[in-house]
TrEMBL record:
Residues 19-208 form the ABC transmembrane type-1 domain. Keywords: Amino-acid transport, Cell membrane, Membrane, Transmembrane, Transmembrane helix, Transport. It is a multi-pass membrane protein. It holds the Pfam family BPD_transp_1. The gene is artQ. GO terms for molecular function: transmembrane transporter activity. It comes from Pseudoneobacillus rhizosphaerae. This is Arginine transport system permease protein ArtQ. GO terms for biological process: amino acid transport. InterPro entries: AA_ABC_transptr_permease_3TM, ArtM/GltK/GlnP/TcyL/YhdX-like, MetI-like, MetI-like_sf. One of its GO terms (cellular component) is ATP-binding cassette (ABC) transporter complex. The chain crosses the membrane at residues 20-43, 55-78, 190-208. Belongs to the binding-protein-dependent transport system permease family. HisMQ subfamily. NCBIfam families: HEQRo_perm_3TM (TIGR01726). It comes from the Bacteria.
Amino acid sequence: MNLDFSQIVPYIPFILEGIWVTLKFVIVAIIFGFVFGSILALLKISHIKPLNWFADAYTSIFRGTPLILQLMIIYFAIPQLTGYDISPFLSAILAFGLNSSAYISEIIRAGIQAVDKGQVEAAQALGIPYRLMMKDLIFPQALKNILPALMNEFITLTKESAIVSTIGYLDLMRRAQVVGADTYRNFEPLIFVGLIYWVMVMGLTLIGKRVERKLKYSD
């Protein structure tokens, strides 16, 4: 085995810049996914059938097709259909946000339905409007229960973020490929970037466990 990490030392600052580049679109995508996923969750528990069907169909499509396919469709189809030259960054946010919202909607729906029905009945008996009941009573309790699952979704998005390298976005994976092309050595930069991904994921995992312990003790 002939490993020589000394050749990638000059590229380390370039690679490390990819950490923020990666996290930037992942954070924006998870916020977008959470907001839209919350709306979808409310549509799923709505008593209006067309809204149920729309939310279920949306979830089925985005959970039933590969994320990389969704990314490619957004990146290549939007310029072809609209003439708008969409950037890799915006494509990544849309693809990951729309995909994540499908999963988050199921997490939030389950969290809302896990709240004691007696509280809903009590709120209705007191004449509390549905919007205020969801905002001030049901949703905060559901959010507390689903935070660990939301953290897992954030971790999953961070790992899957590597696929944006396929559209030329200069994330960690793409930077490893650039360094490999410059040095004619692909293994070392990939191992180095793999270590960075592992540290990021382990860090997020520890944060998630800490949040879960705090929630458990606060019950």
